[in-house]
Structure formats: C-alpha cells, structure tokens
Specification:
Blueprint lengths: L4 E7 L6 H14 L4 E4 L2 E3 L3 E4 L2 E4 H10 L10 E7 L2 E6 L2 E7 L3 H20 L4 E5 L17 H7 L3 E6 L5 H10 L3 H6 E9 L3 H15 L3 E6 L21 E6 L4 E2 L5 H4 L4 E6 L2 H5 L3 E4 L1 E2 L2 H10 L2 H10 L3 E5 L1 H5 L3 E4 L7 E4 L7 E17 L9 E13 L5 E3 L4 E2 L1 E3 L2 E4 L8 H10 L8 H17 L2 H10 L3
Parallel strand pairs: 1-9, 1-10, 2-9, 3-6, 10-11, 11-12, 13-15, 13-16, 16-18, 18-26, 19-21
Antiparallel strand pairs: 4-5, 6-7, 7-8, 14-17, 19-20, 21-22, 21-23, 23-24, 25-26
Length: 479
Amino acid sequence: MKMGRVILVLGTTSGAGKSTLVAAICRYLARRGVRVAPFKAQNMSLNACAVEGGEMAWAQVIQAWAAGVEPRVQMNPVLLKPLGSARSELILLGRSAGVVESTTFDAYRAQARLVAYEALRGLLEEYDLVVAEGAGSPAEVNLKEMDFVNTGLMREFQAPSILVADIDRGGVFASILGTLELFTPQERKLLAGFIINKFRGSLEILKPGLDFLEERTGKPVLAVFPYLDKALPPEDSLDIQDGGGGKLKVAVVRYPHISNFSDLTPLALEPQVTLIYTQDPLEVAAAHLVILPGSRATLADLRWMKDRGLDLAVKLARRRGAWVLGLCGGYQMLGDELEDSVGTDGGGREEGLGLLPLSTLMTGEKRVRPVRVRRAVDWSWMPERVDGYEIHAGKTRGGAPLFYLEEGGEDGAWGERVLGTYIHDLLAQDSFRRAFLNLLEAESRVDYRVYLREAMDALADMVEAHPFLVEWLESMTVK
C-alpha cells in the first residue's frame, strides 16, 4: 500500500496562525480532490468537542470540516486540558487518562509520543496528505529533546515544513531568524519556506524585508496573508474577542477557567447582538442576557465570582429583567449547592447562585458524547429537537427539566428567565439561536453553517492567490 505524505505547519509563536493555515490548506486541497486530513499530535486547550470515540480539540474539528471529512480523535490524539497549578487532564485518543503534573510531564511524553505517532501513521494509510500542526514555538530549547509535536515530528517523519509568523505583533523578521537559528542543520533542510501572516499595508513597503529574509536564509517567502475579517472560531481563550454592535447586550462572565467558548461564537456573529466577555459586575448587571459558560474548575470559578461580586451582579441583572443562560459548568453554578467529595474539581462544597432548585455532586465519571434532545417544556418559541454534545463531570439533580434526551433521561432545568443545560453547541443550531433571540426581541441574521463554509472557502481562495505556496503544495501531493 502506498502511504500518504505529511507536511508540517510550524509557528514562531502561539497564535501565529497555524490552526487557520492548516484549515486553509485542507480546504484548498479538498477542493482540488485531494484526500487530505488535519493532525495535531498534542493540543493544549479547554475548547473541546465530543465526537464519535471521545473528545478532541475544537481546532481540529474545524480543520476536519474544512477538509470535508468527519472529525476523528486520531486527528488530535493527545489533548491537555489545563486545571491550574501546573496540572492538566490528559486525554489520549478521546478518553481521559487522568491528571498529569509538570513534574511528571517527562514520563507522560514517552507514552503520548507513541500514541500520537501511531495515530498519524494510521491516517497516512488512508489519506494522500496529512497536514500536521505544530504547537507554540518549535524553538524552545529546554523542551526540544522531548518534543514530539514540532521538530520531533519533523525529524521522525522527515516532514517538509513551513514556518508561519504573525507580522501584526511586530518583530516578524527577528522571530523568524531567531527560530531558524535554533534549528539543527537537518531541520533547516526540511524547512521549505515562510509565510507572513496578518499583514495590513502595502506589499511594496514590505518587499525589502522579504528580499532580506530570502537572501539571509536561502529560503523563500511562500505567501503573505492579509488580516482576515472572516475568521474561524478561536482555539485559545487568549484569542476570544468581543463581537457585534447590536441592541441586545450579552455579557459572558469570563472566569479564569472558562472552557468550551466555541459555544458562543455564533452569537458573536449576529449583527443585532453586542457580546462582551467581562469580569466587570457593572457590565453584567446592565446586560439583557447573562451567560455563564463552561468551566474546567467550576467550584473555583464560582468562588472567584463571589469574591468579585459577580454573583450579585447576575442576580441583579435577572431582577432587572435580563435572562440568564448557564452552560455546563455555568449550569451547575445556577443551583443551590455544588459538592466535590472526590476531588474532581478541587474538592469541597460551595453554595450556588440559587437561581434554580438544583444540587450537583462531582464524581469521577466523565460523560462525553454527541446527543440529540427534544424539549421537555411546552414553550412554542423553542424548537422541538436540537443536536449538541456533552462533556462534563458531575451529576445534577432537581428542577423542572429543560430537555429529554433521545436515548432516555433528562437534561437541564429552567425557571423564571433562567435556563441551564449540559448541552453544548445549542447556539450553533440556527433553529435554537433564532428562536432564543426572537424571545429576547432580536432578529437572527446568520446561518452559521453557511458562515463556516464561506469562511473556509475564503481561506482556500487566499491560498490559491499565492502561486509559490500553491506550487509547493502541488509538489507535496501524492498522486
């Protein structure tokens, strides 16, 4: 059997645009009939999605959609979900493998490397080309010996690679040259060239810098990409931004361990919505809709809210007529009490906001699965059925159910202008988002799936507009 090839997208820093570039390349090649798949050996993210087989980072889910294939956990075989205090939950091939600490990372990497490379080899048996994404910077000399995501993968698979740098942050030439200086001769040989990302301005002004870079390194600049207005959902909480400028004010409480913030991306696109991520009690109290998003440390984030008076601000907003929506960890916070006797969420007990008659007990069991639900309450505004997924630990009891699970059981609860649910991706369902916005006297004007397709096609068009990059990609494609 003829194996496919792997190419590697590296970045000079986190946030340089690796995830977007992988999606762009996947979309471009898929449109040309190439069997292509994304891959990231290890991702560190609290933005995960449940797929068949377990959970994986949202970034690789989006990249799979761009490639026109179903997301699979093999595309993100190792996922680290930060817990704070240098601890992370380790997800291997979609399943939790416990908690690792910084002092035990070396031992975990040996196992993770084997899992990741076996997954990649499996993908290479199925696809013509696998577009792998690096993580952070490939030039961290203190980590390089144990690396299996960046230069470690490059060497293991002899993967031709490109290096992307964010010019919007400044220092783009220094960051490229500094990264290349820390590469070995073998790694420099595998580096095909550079991509300058997020450029705003005249190429004529930039050209002397590009000429200098090519002359100094002997490597070509394959493309200069513009700063895109239409972008994909953010991978990291550092990249989430406020959105819109409409009449409906939506305040998302941005606690320290916010997770699954991809739930809110569709809402931020709506022109009649102003969505802000905030830690300001005054902004929360003045909102028309307050959202308590997912949390990877629910008890700790609830205590953090109380320390800042945000719990009182949520209650004040509701008394003033606002709606409150709690998602996953935010749903747990809406109840009367949360208890963690097994240390899943740091241990202890905490009184909730008391907006719904609920109690939550944290357990060692984690539920990860796609779901379909139907409404359990006779509200004409709410769609009869919606799809989503669950990623949560803990069992919540009490309250009038919001949904019935198709396979049996109940989910969520509701009260006066209060909704809570474990179901992620509700707001990505156009039927639910439109109905909910109509309830709040705002009109939905976004078809989210159409938006994503257009965003992916815009990325592919961007690739196609750069002949040097296209020529290199064509040379990498297995026929």
